[in-house]
Design brief:
Layout (H helix, E strand, L loop, with lengths): L19 E6 L2 E9 L7 E7 L8 E6 L3 E3 L2 E8 L9 E7 L11
Length: 107
């Protein structure tokens, strides 16, 4: 197991804000979220989502590149496809630094 250099964990990004889903069709949605950069600029983001009723499958999109850096905030977007029409989904996001240390998931 390779461990990151000492002090790296102190630079773990803060947890992203709660993601906003924007439906772009009956089976896809764009997620917009971001993280405040008080404790390091995120190198990438991870999104995990599932249907709360079935709990059958948890899906994940990883290594989402930041879309823009506003001073003090890093924004990202990602499009989820193959969603079930009319279904409800729970979505969480986390941010990671360049060494792969992830923040807590969004609320």
């Amino acid at each position: 197991v390779t461990r990151p250099a000492t002090g790296t964990a102190a630079q773990v990004p803060l947890a992203p804000v709660t993601p906003t889903l924007i439906m772009t069709s009956s089976t896809s949605a764009t997620i917009v979220s971001g993280a405040y950069t008080d404790s390091g600029v995120p190198a990438y983001f991870r999104v995990v989502y599932r249907q709360p009723i079935t709990f059958e499958q948890t899906m994940q999109v990883d290594h989402i590149a930041p879309a823009s850096n506003i001073p003090g905030f890093t924004l990202f977007t990602v499009t989820l496809t193959h969603l079930q029409p009319g279904a409800t989904y729970e979505v969480w996001a986390s941010a990671a630094n360049a060494d792969g240390w992830h923040s807590a998931f969004s609320a």
